[in-house]
Amino acid sequence: MARKIQFGAWVMLAVSLIFLPVSGFAGNYYVRKSGGNDANPGDGWGAGHAISTIQVAIERAGLNPGADVIHVAAGTYFENITIGGNITLYGGYPSGGGTARDLVLNQTIIDGSGVGSVVTVSDVQDVVIDGFVIQNGVENGAGGGIYIESSSAVTIVKNQIKNNTAHGDWGGGVAVVYSDVTLRNNVIQGNNTDQHGGGISFFGGNDVKCSGYVIGNTIVNNEAYKGAGIKSANAQVFIMDNYIERNNARGDGGGIALEACSSASITGNTVSGNEAGYDGGGIFCTDSAAFYIGRNFISGNEAGNWGGGICLIASSGDVVNNVISDNIADETGGGISHYDKASSRIINNTIVYNQGGDDTGGIECYNNSAATVINSIVWANLPNQLHYGDGSMLSVSFSDIQDGYTGTGNINKDPLFFSENDYYLTAASPCIDSGTSANAASTDIQEVSRPRKSGYDMGAYEFVKRGFAADFGANGVYLFDGSVWTGITGWNPENIVGWGTRLFADFGANGLYLFDGKSWKGLCGWNAESIAVSRH
Fold it and tell me: How far apart are CA 49 and CA 142, in angstroms?
């Protein structure tokens, strides 16, 4: 991978530092697009105090030892900034200054004007970038939006990183090279690269480590050759609780692509609507050991060749507690494909309604690969559920396989899901208590403990008795009885602290109760008589 050379930029920075006044303090600096002046000391928001450009504030802070915080008021800053010290950047303040941050009302935009990376972080530690819109970077190397190299403890949080481009290299939105970086609660959209990692890329080496924590982000509408949403090569990555949707790879890995990763965890994500011109519409994994793919919703992805949902090549690991549905592979393995000595344990998954060209809609094993399927539901895939060949092995036990499959504890019965596109088990499901404790997951896709009854259930969901499904809509809580939604006016998400958007509901002695997958919580004041919905 090409390394960026920025000698000219560093010379200009060094020259500018010679002529900057020494303010004599370290700590907080303030930047205002309107009303600021780069000749000011930066020690407050007021006239004669605030600086007008972010880069000058960074340089001013660099004159003093220790950690510095730079507060940036709303506005559009046409800059390409370089961070070379222990800096925290906060955006989202009112345009005239003030203490109340609001990232929606007070958008703080750093615009690269189509020339170079918008933000460069190099050879530093303990850097935070929080609350900015980072846009319109165009870099001939890596990192159109943000480029991070040889740095540690870098945190990118609550930013919008959009419409950036890396020509001929990695990381249209963010490129991480030989660094330790956390990206949390960002929106990363509309970025592209000619090569790898349209949204985010991680690049490490055998001797120089790279690790990434990607948590709670929305990664959408990015484009690349490989890994349109996220690409990781020779790195350790932990990808958790993200929405990775509608990304497009011309080659492999529409949503996520892993290559030669020593460890990778993909947990609790929604990976949907992504496309790959070749393999792995949702997730592509090659030459990687010890991967873990767990508690994800992987749906509606499409691959031009193998693995609409997941494609595994020469890799080994576990696939646990996922719903893998409605994916398409033009060739084979609509749900999961294995190739070139790939191996996996597929435990407590629900693999349904996938399509696989002329061969296999559910799970495919080929070219000396092996898969062990336990406690899973493989149903309604087209043209068939399972296939293996060319020296491969496919072992299945305690699973519900449409049309049947030889193996201990297997059944061939309609799993009786809660409703269309809702793969919870109903009380009459034959999959309840039909699994095995051997190698079973200890919790389900919603982290409900297993088993709930006398035995382990098949599929991603452990059965929980409930009367209704519940969700939040525009006017409050809605209940679903299996056929229609009914609104309960007066209750809204703000009244229920700490709850997710997908719940169950039932009636107890004191009224209506909601279940978030872990525990029941009563909503006093609502009772069965006040809600005209028949119990399901």
Answer: 36
d(CA 181, CA 176): 7
Topology, domain 1-250: Pectate Lyase C-like (2.160.20)
Pair of tokens at residue 217: 């982000």
Helix (H, G, I), strand (E, B) or coil at 9: helix
β partners of residue 108 = 75
443: amino acid identity, one letter: T
Query: What DSSP designation does 530 have?
Result: G
CA atoms within 13 A on the CB side of 279: 15
Q: Do the beta carbons of residue 422 and residue 341 sit within 8 Å? A: no
Contacts of 474 (CB under 8 A, 6+ apart): none
**Residue pLDDT, tens place only, 99-111:** 999 999 999 999 9
Query: Which two structure tokens, joined as six digits, stand for 374?
Result: 């336990």
Which residue pairs from 388-396 have beta carbons closer than 8 angstroms and sit at least 24 positions apart in sequence? 388/364, 389/365, 390/366, 391/367, 392/338, 392/365, 392/366, 392/367, 392/368, 393/365, 393/369, 394/363, 394/365, 394/370, 395/370, 395/371, 396/372
Distance of alpha carbon 236 from the chain centroid = 15
256: Cβ contacts below 8 Å, ≥ 6 apart: 227, 229, 230, 231, 232, 239, 244, 266, 271, 282, 283, 284
- Are residues 128 and 159 in contact, defined by beta-carbon separation less than 8 angstroms? no
Q: Rounded to whole angstroms, what are the CA distances from 263 to 37, 307, 456?
A: 48, 21, 29
Tell me the whole-structure pTM to 2 decimals: 0.86
DSSP one-letter code for 457: P
Q: What are phi and psi of 17, to 5 degrees?
A: -65, -30
Q: CA nearest 65: which of 26, 11, 13, 112? A: 26
Average pLDDT over residues 329-349: 97
148 burial (CB, 10 Å; 0-12 / 13-18 / 19+) is buried
Which pLDDT tens digit goes with each residue over 480-492?
Answer: 655 566 666 554 4
Spatial distance between the Cα atoms of 68 and 126, rounded to a whole number of angstroms: 10
CA distances from 228 to 188, 323, 511, 534 (A): 11, 22, 47, 46
DSSP 242-306: -EEES-EESSS-SSEEEES-SEEEEES-EEES-EESSS-SSEEEES--SEEEES-EEES-EESSB
C-alpha 267: how far from chain center = 8
Q: Could you tell me if 497 and 514 are in contact, meaning their C-beta atoms sit under 8 angstroms apart? A: no
As a whole number of angstroms, the distance between CA 79 and CA 82 comes to 10
